[in-house]
Amino acid sequence: MEPKTLLQLKPELLAKAIIHRRQHLMDQLPEIIKKANKEVREAEDAIKYHENLTSGNQNKTVGNLNELKKLREEFNSAIGRLNRAENIFKNSEEIISFWEGKLEFGFEELLEDSKRVENGGASSWALRKKSANSDEGGEEE
């Protein structure tokens, strides 16, 4: 979706879309996590098998070492997918609750920065930068 189109949407509609998408994702995540766990176990098994197969010094060839490196990269990739899926699942309820709260109680808090800039004030980025600069200057010994 184009940024201009996105900005024309009402906050309520965007919040509902976020909630819907996150709920849909939560429905899919248990299967994704199950699959990622299986991939991790399979990668671990492949590494162990390869290490057992090439345990002697005469089997420490460049090809075998490269294969072990490739297997470990696959394992790390599988662990990454598993961790990401688990984190998304853990954070989803909190995200849904946040946006449901905004639907129930309003979006004013989220629009404070926008209104300040619209009225000629500094952006949140500029305020953070100013705050960081004043913190650095105030710590002289």
Please write out the topology.
Layout: H1 3-8, H2 11-53, H3 62-105, H4 108-118, H5 124-137
Helix pairs in contact: 2-3
Task: Describe it.
This protein is an all-alpha fold. It folds into two domains: 10-106; 107-141, no CATH class. It has five helices and no strands. It has helices at 3-8, 11-53, 62-105, 108-118, 124-137. The longest helix is centred in the middle third of the chain and has 44 residues, at 62-105. It starts with a helix and ends with a helix. The mean pLDDT is 87.
Number of β-strand runs: 0
- Helix/strand-derived category reads mainly alpha
SSE sequence, one letter per element = HHHHH
Task: Report the span from N to C terminus.
Answer: 52 Å
What number of structural domains do the residues give?
2
**Which geometry do the CA atoms define?**
elongated
> Mean pLDDT across all residues, rounded?
87
**How many helices?**
5
Helix content: over 70%
The largest sheet is: none
CA-atom Rg in angstroms: 25 Å
Low-confidence stretches: none
Content of β-strand: under 5%
In short:
The protein is mainly alpha-helical and 141 residues long. It has 2 domains: 10-106; 107-141, no CATH class.
